[in-house]
């Protein structure tokens, strides 16, 4: 597996980039991205993601126009797309795997942007020969970021409060979901949890909630859904993808700070509160 740089710093630096300059990504860099895609294609729930790096520069103009993003992305010529079988746990694994790649791509100095609903899914599906059992949950452009954001991008970021995150006490809990987790009770996992807080999510909703068990380093990951959100896009469950992204940030930061653990399903009961249990990180 490839050696990588400072993943925590890359997580802190990552931001959604929708405008790119006219500078091709070098072949050596594309080779590294392809290596990342090969190294990070299976998630904690056991599903394998079939990734492709699509270069619009290699296509005829008419073909490249079909792979559109409805004007939400400007100037990108390179895209990461992934295909996964539509099964329980697959959306979480897709989010986990692609974010593992995106953080590493950020570490290379390139920009990216999660796109779950603003791309021509059918055109990408034809390009990737998607079967009836598979879906393309999301894609991401890759390239060198422009210093200037478009008017549409500025409006979008303002609308979703893109640079704001929910407070620590809203996201992380001790024992159950009635007691917020104090930072001094998080121990060595403060950085990992903060990296979860910085994770991107659809419309910046941040649906993850994490409960730490008393006296042990076991962290239960819960999904707090936004009511009615799933009706907006039936092709993929974006909030489950968001949970995979959060898991990816947690693990990247934990391992970089010398903490080791495994993802396992347990019998944790969130005790109401409208949250759905997904998986747990259990320290070795």
**Helical content (DSSP H or I, runs of 4+):** 25-40%
Assigned CATH class of the largest domain = Alpha Beta
Low-pLDDT parts are none
Q: What is the count of distinct domains?
A: 2
CATH topology of the largest domain: the name is NADH Oxidase
Strand count, sense and barrel status of the largest sheet are: 5 strands, antiparallel
Radius of gyration: 18 Å
Give me the number of helical elements. 9
Number of strands: 10
Order of helices and strands: HHEHEHEHEEHHEHEEHEE
Distance between the termini: 22 Å
Secondary structure class reads: alpha+beta
Superfamily (CATH H level) name of the largest domain: NADH Oxidase
What is the CATH architecture annotation of the largest domain?
3-Layer(aba) Sandwich
- Proportion of residues in β-strands: 15-25%
- Global morphology: globular
The overall average pLDDT, rounded, is 91
Short description:
By secondary structure, this protein is an alpha+beta fold.
Structure description:
The chain is of the alpha+beta class. It has 2 domains: 7-155, NADH Oxidase; 164-283, 3-Layer(aba) Sandwich (NADH Oxidase). Helices cover 32% and strands 18% of the residues. It contains 9 helices and 10 strands. It has helices at 7-13, 27-39, 61-66, 90-107, 121-127, 151-159, 168-171, 190-197, 238-256, and strands at 50-55, 78-85, 111-112, 134-135, 139-143, 172-174, 208-212, 218-224, 261-264, 275-283. Strands 1, 2, 3, 4 and 5 form a 5-stranded antiparallel β-sheet that branches. A 5-stranded mixed β-sheet has the order 6-7-8-10-9. The protein starts with 6 loop residues before the first helix and ends with a strand.
């Amino acid at each position: 597996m490839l050696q990588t740089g400072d993943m925590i710093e890359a997580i802190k630096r990552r931001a959604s980039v929708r405008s790119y300059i006219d500078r091709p990504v070098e072949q050596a860099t594309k080779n590294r991205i392809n290596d990342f895609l090969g190294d990070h294609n299976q998630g904690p729930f056991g599903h394998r993601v079939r990734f492709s790096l699509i270069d619009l520069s290699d296509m005829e103009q008419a073909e490249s126009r079909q792979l559109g993003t409805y004007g939400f992305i400007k100037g990108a010529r390179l895209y990461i797309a992934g295909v996964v079988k539509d099964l329980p746990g697959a959306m979480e694994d897709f989010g986990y795997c692609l974010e593992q790649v995106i953080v590493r791509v950020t570490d290379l100095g390139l920009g990216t942007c999660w796109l779950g609903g603003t791309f021509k899914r059918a055109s990408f599906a034809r390009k990737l020969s998607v079967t009836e059992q598979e879906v393309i949950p999301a894609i991401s452009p890759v390239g060198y970021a422009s210093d200037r954001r478009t008017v549409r991008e500025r409006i979008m970021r303002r609308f979703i409060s893109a640079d704001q995150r929910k407070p620590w006490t809203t996201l992380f809990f001790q024992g159950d979901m009635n007691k917020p987790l104090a930072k001094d009770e998080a121990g060595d996992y403060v950085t990992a949890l903060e990296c979860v807080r910085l994770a991107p999510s659809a419309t910046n909703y941040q649906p993850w909630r994490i409960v730490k068990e008393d006296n042990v380093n076991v962290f239960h990951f819960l999904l707090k859904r936004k009511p009615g959100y799933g009706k907006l896009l039936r092709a993929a469950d974006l909030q489950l993808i968001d949970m995979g992204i959060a898991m990816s940030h947690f693990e990247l930061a934990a391992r970089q700070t010398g903490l080791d653990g495994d993802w396992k399903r347990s019998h944790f009961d969130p005790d109401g509160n409208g949250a759905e249990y997904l998986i747990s990180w259990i320290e070795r």
